[in-house]
Write a structure and sequence with these properties.
The protein starts with 6 loop residues before the first strand and ends with a helix. Strand 2 and strand 3 form a beta hairpin. It has seven helices and 15 strands. The protein is an alpha+beta fold and 332 residues long. It is 19% helix and 25% strand.
Length: 332
């Protein structure tokens, strides 16, 4: 059976009452039953035109069962000519300024078009293999819609040296990571620390949540740099610098939401603040209303070069979309 060519089979009298997965497995001995079940669950099977996602569905005589086997995905990411904003590069590592919308490595829903695909095209086979075939050279990550600085290793020596520094989180070494975030409202204090463990949300496994017990240690240090709004009223927003003592998934986004100051544009953790932009006047109202990502930028990255020990320090200016919002907020 050719890839992407749907195959139709009509159930006979002897097939009546059979489980759908067993029926298909008997007809296609070159496809395992586990694979058949996965195809059913992913919506690749229909019975007489009706989509079915439950492997134990029973078939009846005369049913027309249609099976589609998608084109097999490459076992390893493929090089793709995706432009990179390269801040620094040598034989051991590469520092890039990641744009919004670029996923770091292949995964569910993002099989290609990622930073890894771009690095494979730019660096060739020199990327470190420690991260595995789907994450070559990747030492740390930024969320898809977070902009800013990210370093990747070009060989195993560099990967191990950088990974050790990121694991230490700058406690005993020179590693620094600082982010600029535009948040709703403003904390009452000029600075503070959020120490709240994080784990996968029970309600939504795609999200992260603060947990009282269990989870992983997560510590974020923040400092308010600007407050925006009329002098005689509470700030409507603020520019906050966040520094990480740990590096958990969505850490800054979840922690700032936890203290009731979610990031502007963050529909995962700040959806309840969405209508606040309606209070603004133009052009700020349109800028915020049309802003489709969390307002977060990795503006500072510093580490010790894994080969020479030299302090490497990079800064990235706040990108244009955030700058536009900040300029308008300053006019309130």
């Amino acid at each position: 059976m050719g890839a992407n060519a749907p195959e139709c089979i009509t159930a006979e009298a002897k097939d009546k009452g059979k489980r759908l997965d067993a029926f298909l497995a008997a007809r296609f001995d070159d496809i395992s039953r586990n694979r058949i079940q996965a195809l059913i669950k992913s919506g690749q099977v229909s019975i007489s035109g009706r989509n079915v996602v439950e492997p134990k569905t029973r078939v009846n005589e005369g049913d027309v069962v249609t099976l589609n086997v998608p084109e097999a995905e490459p076992a390893e990411p493929q090089p793709q000519d995706i432009p990179l904003d390269i801040v620094y590069e040598d034989e051991d590592l590469i520092v890039i300024n990641k744009p919004a919308g670029l996923v770091v490595h292949p995964g569910a829903g993002n099989p290609d078009g990622t930073l890894v695909n771009a690095l494979l095209h730019h660096c060739g086979s020199s990327l470190s293999g420690i991260g595995g075939v789907k994450r070559p050279g990747i030492v740390h990550r930024l969320d898809k819609d977070t902009t800013g600085l990210l370093v990747s290793a070009k060989n195993d020596m560099a990967h191990q040296g950088l990974a050790d520094q990121f694991a230490d989180h700058g406690r005993t070494g020179p590693l620094e990571r600082a982010y600029k975030a535009i948040v709703w409202g403003a904390p009452a204090s000029p600075s503070g620390t959020i120490d709240a463990n994080l784990a996968r949300s029970v309600a939504n496994r795609q999200k992260i949540a603060v947990v009282k017990t269990g989870g992983r240690t997560a510590i974020t240090h923040w400092q308010v740099q600007e407050r925006f709004g009329p002098e005689d009223a509470a700030p409507v927003a603020s520019l906050v610098e966040c520094r990480l003592e740990t590096g958990r998934t969505h850490q800054i986004r979840v922690h700032m939401a936890h203290i009731s100051h979610p990031l502007m544009g963050d529909m995962d953790y700040g959806a309840g603040f969405k209508t606040k932009f309606n209070r603004f006047e133009e052009p700020l109202k349109s800028l915020v209303g049309n802003f489709k990502r969390q307002a977060l930028h990795a503006g500072l990255l510093a580490f010790s070069h894994p080969r020479t020990g030299e302090l490497m320090r990079f800064e990235s200016p706040i990108p244009h979309d955030l700058t536009q919002i900040l300029q308008s907020l300053r006019k309130i």
